[in-house]
Amino acid sequence: MRITPSLFALLLVSGTPNPGGAQEPNRLSPAEVKEGWILLFNGRDLGNWHRYGAPGRPLEGWSVRDGEIAKDSDGKVHLVENGDYSDFELVVEWKVDGGVNCGINLRVQEKARNPWEEAIKYQISSKDAELALTRGPTFLSGGHHQKYAPLPGDVSLPHGRWNTTRIFVKGLRYVFYLNEIKTLDFEPAAPFIEKWPALGRSLRGHIGLQDHAPAHARVWFRNIKLRPLATDQAGARSETTREISVGGSARRSAR
Questions:
Q1: DSSP 134
Q2: Taking the mean position of all CA atoms in its chain, how far away is CA 124?
Q3: Among 16, 98, 152, 175, which is disulfide-ready with 168 (CB 3.0 to 4.6 Å)?
Q4: Could you list the pLDDT tens digit for every one of the 255 residues in the chain?
Q5: Are 104 and 172 contacting, i.e. CB atoms less than 8 angstroms apart?
Q6: Cβ proximity of 178 and 154 under 8 Å
């Protein structure tokens, strides 16, 4: 893994949404709106999402209940949000039960047979680490599918509890957090995975949710929020800006 040792930092504006707080799920506060956050899931329907590679076709295996996107069956259908993004901060809440293998796909282009062949994937798995035992630690939550294991190991919460994923993407830099613990910091140098030469080369694209689990496995998502990062953001700008130091796996202070 390439980890940059310099003081290069990504910017996080104070007041970043705290999905674990008392705020109603799937809503933006006035402060979040002012900071430029975009709500990618309205809590009611999947009108802002489509099927990977096949807009307009049914979203088999997915539904919305109680303000949550639910993966109901092994439909082998991957969700793609309609927006197109370059550099961003993304926050997603999720919970699982047993046997889950899924993830969050970043800068999806919809040009490959499967999203993980072209898009950097934030891995989400069940707490039982069944996949890690059979396929290796890169399948632990907070890792990169088939490439990097999360540095601290599995820091996900027990089944049925909401986890918080936070992802920073800037240029070819990807920084992953799980429950406010940094799990990965890397640049997908080519060839990232040789059998998929396009993987990680895109500088913009969609956000995707992946269904790649047995029919009995269940996963739920909510509070999907994105804040675009301006391309000229570098270094500290004001007293309202805090830096996230990259190059280590230290725990960030909870807000």
A1: H
A2: 9
A3: 175
A4: 443 433 334 444 333 444 444 678 999 999 999 999 999 999 999 999 999 999 989 898 899 999 999 987 766 789 999 999 999 999 999 999 887 888 999 999 999 999 999 999 999 998 875 666 777 889 899 999 889 999 989 999 999 999 999 999 999 999 999 999 999 999 998 788 989 988 989 999 999 998 776 667 789 999 999 999 986 443 323 222 333 433 333 333 333
A5: no
A6: no
